[in-house]
Design a protein that fits this description.
The complex is a heterodimer. Helix content of chain A is 39%, strand content 16%. Chain A is of the alpha+beta class. The chains are: A alpha+beta, B alpha+beta.
């Protein structure tokens, strides 16, 4: 298929575009009306304003894949298309005829819903910068292993390459960390007993207390109560003496029966005697999508009962719950003797959310820029979070398969809440999180393509697209993402999880509605304060050294008595 | 401020007291309660941590149902500290309630803290002697606006508070108007609060304020109508002016039956009338009560729904909306505005002060903000003692009108982080001391009353105290010459721009407040920079 087959009318003249923009002087939202021509290319909708003596030509570029939903409004007098974007921007386009409107609508419907990964934007953007293999290999399991276990010989864990060909678990990476005493045969057996072959693997090791987090998918107990000795052995071997194991099952206890009847299940007390099972509810990705849509609806159409609408969207409930559960895990791991196995259904969504949030609380490394990228690679990309499915549509849309669910957006919001509560302890800033959000749904970079490592390898992503980290590591770009107030904080951070302590992410969810200028000014001022402080420190240091020099000279010359100093 | 228990007069001591953690009722800490003549002091047995509560800050004392451990008493303060003490002996509990009731709300002004000897403040403020404190003069503030000029003049008509006892003794009025007219207008306005100048914008448009007219169903006053024409004439740039009644129209209509009400539009020429709809003191009091409960139930999972139900932020929005209306009229349409509500000392004070703050960057400096409070609130007779319940009087008079003003300023600080010289801490401390009665500044209901009480001679001024701690209150992000600190502020008043003021309403809940506060770290950073700068100067000298 060729893009051109989908484009019937590459250009329409006499088009009006309306969008809401901020008038900074009046600090008000005003509707901007533009006249010009609309052009369709294989990846972009480009609107170009008419040349006018007073105004310079303006261009609006909209990537097809950034379009979340299209609404056509054709009446006798009006031929209008409403374009809602995945980043929450909304455009209204008036066409000169119904025919143009229908044709463009049809083209955009197809172009914005292309499911063929190969046709996605990153494959056509190799020129944005050189493909840097180093950035594609930013994460390596060996590096993580070294960090968790500086002394390999005494470690009770090993790296297994059992999944090297993605056979036993297509959504797992090639290499995983497992207990040393468990051989690969046992892993194969365990993988057959777990949904999608996701057997228990090490997610995080807390050196300070030698406690850890494992994650997996649900066991396939089924109605005839199957068990798997090897699976039981993995959990038994993993747990050192004196530690209490907890299976954190992120599903309501009430739903377990249903799970069993569908062939799934849970770890029974009889077969896993050392592990205590705790059921904690988290909304599943499809429910979270509904929450997200309600949240954005409240933000876009906020008039009456705004706070009530925010509340009923349950977005804050989800943030609170996610932070609360990771708080409990961090507390057990750091202050008590708990070790964890986390899973829900397939271990692709909430499992990764809770495990990565707990790490951010526990591990100072994950609060640095590199450490956070490492965490995203390890706990989301290599862990098989289905990025392609979950972020095909944003808050305004959904595909018939209903695979959308903004779990990673919730993760970013939780991290932002933590950045706000601990303004000194994170090396990266809010702009970095917003940049990640923007590349999640539509991107020129290949990082979030596909649903797991297996798919990314098949697509040859690392040789055909540029990594998002290449963009981040660029000297000019990286400056934008650094928190000037960052100081290394080696402690565990304990967030506040009351609703009062949380805030709406207005720089993201209200991004096209609020005036960001006063805040940008404040950000610049903070950078200035830090710089001034640094310069004065350098100056003082220099003067002090000069003084010492002078004193030394004076003493050497016998002018000063050294005993006085 | 930290005091020494040995220096305080302890009336009685209560043993075997437990303090219950508000966010987790299972956590209780044991300690002792001391009742001094000015404070309730709780000292934890193990950690020796002390909690000092001024009696004057106590808002309510509530005996809860008896529990196994003893009698629980919930004490809520006006600065939003909530303590639940469990007292093992019932008799001790009775003593506590009795002492608290006796001391927390005295019946006479002279029993208030600020009139007592205070060695701590004496030490702190002895450089600024009591008689030597910053006294605020209305004339100098009007001189700053370029007054008197050929349009506006100062009148001594109220020099002995003879036409209005709740106004200041000097007033600014149109130069063209005769005393006779002013006198008659005062007679036609509730409590004699005639239209006078509040703020003059550089473009000639003015902000004037007054109380409701005593119009009843069809009363009118020729001189009052003339006075408004004179006000209109002071501004050459507009052919008309606005009269803004900040009340909901239905409230204004209800006042008619009592011989009050609002201006009859047909009697006043070239004037546009507007009703805006800020609710009255009773609605605001109830809303705050709900808000405090909503903030306190910290395990509350439907906090946002509860917050919506309190309607608190809706009221805050209404006040800012009204002020923005005034700003747009004065600055954008070059049109003067006369503002009133019922008596013109609550909603009128809120909106006139806030509009001035939005219009004139001077009021966003520490000194200017203090001048603004002196002018619009203290001199124009906001009834601080009634509204704050300083004395044991009518509870129906209590209402958080000034607190709402402070919150509005805080909401603006949020939107414009670089536009204010003072920080959030300044507002929170100001809020506390409006109630604390340690300083004379906010005692009494009007200037006349403060003169009669000899406040200036007998008490310390809060402004002097603040001056001694000024470094705590400076906003490190303030940029004096930026767009936002140099011109008219235009806040976004859509509902999502309004936030719950956690640092005030959950001020003492460490589990709710953020662990690393941006404002604190920035202040520390600037402080560090300035001390390093001093040090480097010293080093340069030595070298």
């Amino acid at each position: 298929m060729d893009f051109m087959d989908l484009i019937e009318m590459p250009r329409v003249d006499h088009v009006k575009v309306y969008r809401q923009i901020q008038n900074y002087e009046l600090n008000q939202l005003v509707t901007q009306k533009l006249f010009g021509s609309l052009n369709l290319t294989s990846h972009h909708l480009i609107f170009i304003t008419q040349t006018d003596l007073q105004k310079p030509r303006e261009e609006i570029w909209i990537v097809h894949s950034s379009i979340d939903s299209l609404e056509k409004n054709v009446t006798e007098a009006k031929f209008q298309l409403m374009i809602k974007c995945k980043n929450f921007q909304i455009y209204f386009v008036d066409f000169p005829t119904a025919y143009c409107c229908n044709s463009i609508h049809k083209s955009l419907e197809s172009l914005s819903n292309l499911t063929t990964e190969n046709m996605k934007l990153p494959f056509f953007c190799q020129t944005i910068s050189k493909i840097n293999q180093e950035d594609w290999n930013f994460y390596s399991i060996e590096k993580s292993y070294k960090r968790f276990f500086p002394n390999e010989d005494s470690s009770e864990w090993r790296i297994s390459e059992i999944n090297n060909d993605f056979k036993i678990s297509p959504s797992y990476p090639k290499k995983v960390i497992v207990p040393k005493n468990i051989d690969d045969q046992a892993l194969i057996k365990s993988s057959q007993f777990r949904s999608m072959g996701r057997f228990p693997i090490l997610s995080y090791y807390h050196k300070k207390t030698n406690s850890f987090i494992l994650r997996s998918s649900q066991p396939l107990l089924g109605s005839n109560n199957k068990r798997c000795k090897e699976d039981e052995l993995i959990l038994k071997c993993a747990l050192p003496k004196g530690k209490q194991g907890y299976v954190y099952d992120l599903r309501d206890a009430s739903i377990l029966k249903t799970a069993v009847s569908k062939g799934g299940g849970y770890e029974t007390e009889v077969n896993y005697p050392l592990w205590k099972r705790i059921n904690k509810h988290m909304d599943r990705f499809d429910q979270l999508h509904i929450s997200y849509s309600k949240l954005i609806d409240a933000c876009v159409n906020s008039s009456t009962q705004f706070f009530y609408k925010l509340d009923t969207s349950a977005w804050f409930y989800n943030i609170r719950q996610a932070l609360y559960l990771s708080f409990l895990i961090a507390d057990e791991i750091h202050n008590k003797n708990g070790c964890f196995l986390i899973h829900g259904w397939d271990g692709l969504d909430n499992t990764l959310l809770i495990s990565s949030l707990a790490q951010i609380l526990l591990d100072p490394e994950s609060r640095t820029l590199d450490g956070f990228i490492d965490l995203i690679e390890r706990e989301w990309l290599h862990a098989g979070h289905p990025f392609s499915k979950r972020y095909f549509k944003s808050a305004f849309g959904i595909t018939p398969q209903k695979q959308e669910g903004p779990v990673f957006v919730l993760f970013l919001d939780c991290v932002r809440q933590l950045c706000e509560q601990f303004c000194l302890s994170f090396e990266f800033n809010e702009d970095f999180l917003i940049m990640l959000f923007d590349n999640l749904y539509t991107s020129e970079y290949g990082t979030f393509l596909g649903n797991n490592q297996n798919e990314r390898e098949q697509l040859l992503v690392s040789s055909r697209t540029v990594s998002l980290w290449t963009y981040v590591k660029n000297e000019e770009n990286i400056k934008k993402f650094i928190n000037p107030l960052y100081k290394i904080n080696d402690d565990v951070i304990w967030p506040s999880i009351f609703t009062q302590s949380l805030s709406l992410w207005s720089n993201l969810f209200l991004r096209f509605q609020i005036n960001s200028k006063p805040n940008d000014e404040a950000k610049k001022e903070i950078v200035k304060l830090v710089e001034t402080n640094l310069q004065v420190k350098i100056k003082v240091e220099k003067l002090r050294n000069e003084l010492l020099e002078l004193q030394k000279e004076a003493i050497d010359a016998g002018v000063l008595n050294s005993e006085n100093y | 401020m930290k005091l020494d228990l040995e220096e305080s007069n302890v009336i009685t001591k209560i043993e075997n007291v437990q303090l219950e953690d508000r966010s987790n009722s299972k956590i209780k800490t044991a300690g002792l309660l001391y009742l001094t003549i000015s404070h309730l002091v709780f000292i934890e047995t193990n950690s020796k941590r002390e909690i000092w509560i001024y009696y004057s800050l106590i808002n309510s004392i509530e005996k809860l149902p008896l529990s196994i451990n003893g009698s629980p008493i919930l004490i809520r303060t006006k600065h939003f500290l909530n303590c639940l003490f469990i007292i093992s002996k019932e008799r001790d509990c009775q003593t506590l309630v009795q002492v608290l009731n006796q001391y927390s709300r005295p019946t006479k002004y002279h029993e208030l803290l600020c009139f007592r000897e205070n060695s701590h403040l004496k030490k702190l403020l002895d450089s600024t002697h009591k008689n030597n404190q910053q006294i605020y003069h209305l004339e100098s503030e009007y001189a700053r606006m370029g007054l008197p000029n050929n349009k506006w003049t100062m009148t001594n008509l109220n020099s002995d508070y003879q036409i209005c006892d709740t106004y200041p003794n000097v007033l600014f009025v149109p130069a063209s108007v005769e005393d006779k007219i002013l006198q008659s207008s005062a007679n036609f306005r509730s409590r004699g609060r005639l239209p006078v100048l509040s703020y003059l914008h550089p473009n000639g448009a003015s902000l004037t304020r007054c109380s409701q007219p005593l119009s009843g169903f069809n009363g009118r006053c020729d001189e009052d109508e003339q006075l408004l024409q004179h006000i209109l004439m002071t501004n050459e740039n507009s052919k008309f002016m606005y009269v803004v009644d900040t009340r909901p129209k239905i409230n204004a209509m209800a006042n008619k039956a009592q011989g009050k009400g609002y201006e009859n539009e047909t009697n006043y020429k070239n004037i546009q009338f507007h009703f805006i709809g800020i609710e009255n003191i009773h609605v605001m009091r109830n809303s705050l009560d709900k808000l405090v409960k909503c903030a306190d139930s910290s395990s509350n999972s439907s906090f946002l729904t509860e917050l919506e139900k309190t309607e608190w932020l809706k009221h805050i929005k209404a006040i800012i909306d009204t002020s923005v209306f005034l700003v747009e009229a004065i600055n954008d349409q070059n049109t003067s505005v006369l503002v009133h509500c019922s008596d013109g000392w609550d909603r009128t004070a809120q909106t006139c002060a806030l509009a001035s703050l939005l219009l004139d960057p001077y009021y966003r400096s520490i000194h200017g903000f203090q001048v603004l409070i002196e002018k619009e609130w203290l001199l124009f007779g906001h009834k601080f003692s009634h509204r704050c319940g300083h004395l044991f009087e009518n509870d129906k008079e209590i209402s958080p009108i000034f607190s709402q003003f402070l919150e509005c300023v805080w909401q603006l600080q949020l939107q414009f982080p670089c536009a204010f010289e003072f920080n959030e801490t300044y507002l929170i401390k100001l809020h506390e001391h409006v109630y604390s009665c340690q300083f004379g500044t906010f005692i009494g209901n009007c200037q006349k009353e403060r003169n009669d009480l000899k406040i200036n001679e007998l008490t310390y001024s809060l402004w002097d105290y603040f001056q001694s701690k000024i470094y705590d209150f400076i906003n490190p992000l303030y940029i004096p010459n930026s767009v936002y600190s140099n011109s008219v502020l235009r806040p976004d008043t859509r509902i999502f721009s309004f936030k719950f003021w956690r640092s005030l309403y959950n001020r003492f809940d460490s589990t709710i407040n953020h662990s690393e506060k941006l404002i604190d770290s920035l202040s520390m950073l600037s402080y560090n920079t300035s001390s390093l700068q001093e040090y480097s100067k010293l080093l340069e000298k030595v070298n």
